[in-house]
Amino acid sequence: MASTGSSSSIAVADADSARPCDAVVGIQSYNDADTIAGVVASAREGMRRHAATGCVILADGASTDRTVAVAREIAGDECPVVAVDYRRPEVDPLKLPYHGRPGRAAAMRAVLQAARDRRAKTCVMLDARLPNLRPESVVSLIEPVLRGEMDYVSAHYVRHPYEGAITKSIIYPVFRALYGARLRQPAALEFACSTSLLDHFLEQRFWDAEGAPTGIDMWLAATAVTGRYRMGEALLGVRSVAMRPVAPDLSTALGQIVGALLVDLKSRAQLWHRVRGSVPVPVVGNVDETAVPPAPDIDPEKLRESFRLGYGALRDVWASILPPRTIIELKKVADAPPERFRIHDDLWARIIYDFALGHHLKAMPHEHLLGALVPLYLGWLASFMLEPGTDDPDAAEQRIDRLGMAFETQKPYLISRWRWPERFRS
After folding, report:
1. CATH superfamily name and code, 15-284
2. pTM of the model
């Protein structure tokens, strides 16, 4: 059902807005009048530069400001804005999705359906809160699909080596090892897809699943790679996002992101058991290599202390998930001085794989299991930060690549326990 948003008196775009077009840019919005203008302007200019006919599908959650009206004013006649409804549920502020967008799966589904109705050759998903989005970024997402080179193009943002550590330490290496594609940011909120992949997405059953609001982005990436669609990444520079009034705490964010990954790998076990090795994905676009975000305010010594306290408080809980050998190794880590505080790659890979197995076997309530992972994650981050050279972007990239290789090397460890868990319970 079309909607103009509760504060807009502008009529819904007329019937010819549903005419076939080359590109559809989908934007999920809710009270984003302060930032929507720049996003729509960049979408319009990006499509114009590629000589692509297109429109903007605004999945608006009944904004009470002028979000929809501003979007239409900026787009003008050459790039119609069509607003579609999606179900935006009420969410406890303390349990907001890590990306801050309740109802994201419903919004994305509405956009993809609108793109299919218009027989679009590509559909691009953007966030309404990107104040510094450039037209070049939109072009980088659109072009590989319209040229027939790729079916799925994921955003790849420049981050400080210490930012995005959940992705670097868990999501990327697990995704790489299990699904065979070295996609650096598998849960990126911005992406583009082809017509054939769009149809494939809409055929899936996960849209209404319990974890869809937080897991849909990663699930779509996994669907693309396991469906053998052509994957790629677009370099989009530094991702600057308008501040949210409430941000989830670390435990909530880690539980949502890692939980979505574990749900997905369980559903695709028959596929990833057969995957061997990994391949890099093509990268398109250019970024200013000097534009590196400032270092986040993180004290590795505090992280180390959190790990040590976690070991003391959760050792028995960990022992119900991890084998005795791993508990012994973790004690050595907890007792080590800062200069020798290291969680080595093979150990970390086995820890994550054992938590995946614990999730699969329902060793304990999933919320408790993922909560028990937090101190271990903080220990990994402390170890990473205390390792010489990891504050350098190039060195950090090489370091994360080696971590991904370790997860590939340890993959048989997961497969053997997944297939025959009763052999490894003692």
Report:
1. Spore Coat Polysaccharide Biosynthesis Protein SpsA; Chain A (3.90.550.10)
2. 0.91
